[in-house]
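Hey team,

Filing this mostly as a record. A colleague (T.K.) asked me to run one chain through the structure pipeline before their review meeting, and I want the input and output archived in the tracker in case anyone asks later how it was produced. No errors, nothing strange. Just documentation.

Input sequence:
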Amino acid sequence: MLEVLLVDDEPFILQGLQLLVDWEKEGYHISTASNGKEAYDFVSNNPVDLIISDIKMPVMTGVELLKAIRTELNQDTYFVILSGYAEFSYAQEALRFDCTDYILKPVESEQLITILRKVSELNQAKTSRNKDGMLKEKAYMERTLMHLLSGKYDVTDLEYVTQKTNIDEEKCYVEIQLDEQNPAEDFSDDDKKAMLAKLYIAACDYLKDDSIFCIRDISDSEQVYDIGFVYSESMGQRLQLTEKEYLISFLEYLEANTNLSITVLVGKTVTGIRNISKSYGTANMLHSLQGFREKKNIYFYDEEYKVCESGLIICKKQLDALITAIERGEHVEIRKCVEDFYEEMQKTGVTGSTMNLNINYLLFQLIHLASELDSEVNQEEILRIISETTSEEGIRRGGRTHLCRMSYAYGEYLAQLRKNVSRGVLGDVEEEIKKNYASNLTLKDLSEKYYVNSAYLGQLFRKKYGCSFKDYLNKKRIEEAAKLLRKTDMKIYEVAESVGYKDADYFVNKFIEAMGCTPTKYKKQF
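Output structure:
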């Protein structure tokens, strides 16, 4: 329903205009004002889509009202002037201030209806343009944030973000992940994507204008359904909340409005957007450490890594033996070392901080071990994915079985690093994508088919092609979609489905990100 304001100093004319057409049927809600000043005050405090104003009025004329709205309020409200033949010169002056149209008195019903429908069409076109603009801006910001999170940004990225936020204030990366119990085996990929879409919409509703800093489906892992956003200290300050209070409120809102079980991971607080990749890296570490922590709905990196107790010890002898067994891929020895480690922990009297310290030592040593074999691979991401894929419901919070399974998988990953399985495998996978890009291809399925660790395969993709497996698959799908848009009369949703997208909105967003315009605009160009 569009808001229309009728302005005239003669009450009987106002009454006549209200009765002349069925305003509600035409999609308008009426308000009235008796002169230009009264109308100006109303527009200053209320949303108005269309003003129909007499040209000659006391206090402030219709032309003066139009000029004030354009220059003082800086609004693009549609404006229609009512004038007589003798006032035609005034109407011409109004056109210089972007007057939408004018109606000669006496006003006829058909003429007024024509004007109202013209304004409705103009408003629909403007709404469509604004939506396209917002989608473009959102897609561009997502791409810019991904550059910043990876640490591979340039001056252009910083300049763009500077327009949207204070780049020097304290920030942290926040990840919101669907809990394992949500994407259970009885849920299809479409079900999981629908859950993620629901979570993303709720997050954007809470963040409002700050939703531009929210990224949907950010993880490279095929097993993880998540969204992320960059928190700035000013977000909390506007609501007089601390960072922790704001994020807890955010979590509570998401749970209440989605009925989904979620986990929030809050990376290390850093100074300035230039350091946000460090915060992103620590959030990834929290993923890996969840399996050894007490289950929570929200984890803060600064709290999880804070060691306040004295007298903490590291079972270095047992852990170093476990690391050696992992490096050699000896499963029997790994089980023995894990048992030795837990026995030693029990002897010393396990506390939460002691366990955290020991697990942290183990994980960082494993990362270092892999980095020596391939320094270009994101080892924190690899460890996170391996930890997640080897964890099962009930085998969490420091479970020996989880630690054993993770150690087995990491040993296999190290073996593949040494063999450099990228020769041949990437070519086979690339050919598979060319043939079956529209199918529900996942990194996990391909890794099982070609006998390679999924986490490592994902990193090989990033190393060779400069993007994740998901991005590579999306690129192929968008290329095929562009061909269909150019050469067929298929509708947008039909094109989306034919190249493998079940969610048309997600397809549109990805298309804009890749091609710089909406599918509709792209199709019209050809």
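Quick notes for T.K.: The two ends are 35 Å apart (CA to CA). The longest helix spans residues 109-150.
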